[in-house]
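Practice problem: predict the structure.
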Amino acid sequence: MEGSIKGYQIVDYVLNAKEGQQMNVSMATQNTSAYFNILAPGENEAAMFIGSVNGNQYEGQLSASGDYKVRVYMMRAAARRDEVADYRLEMNITPGN
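Answer:
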């Protein structure tokens, strides 16, 4: 997926997955203030993965079935400056081990 965000805009991508499957997400962007978080099924606020802390690469086995949200966003300081971030997001779900 390719997209662009500006300022405080966020974009959510929803991936349906089953418990035990493997999720891989990576994001490429020129803006060093743009990241993604991953929210577990049923969660709207607390992220299970925080890109600004862990970087723009996630790989892990899923602990629950349902809709996972991959949320693209910009850090507050950059959002306040109304910066723009073009990005490319790769998301894969594969069978577990």
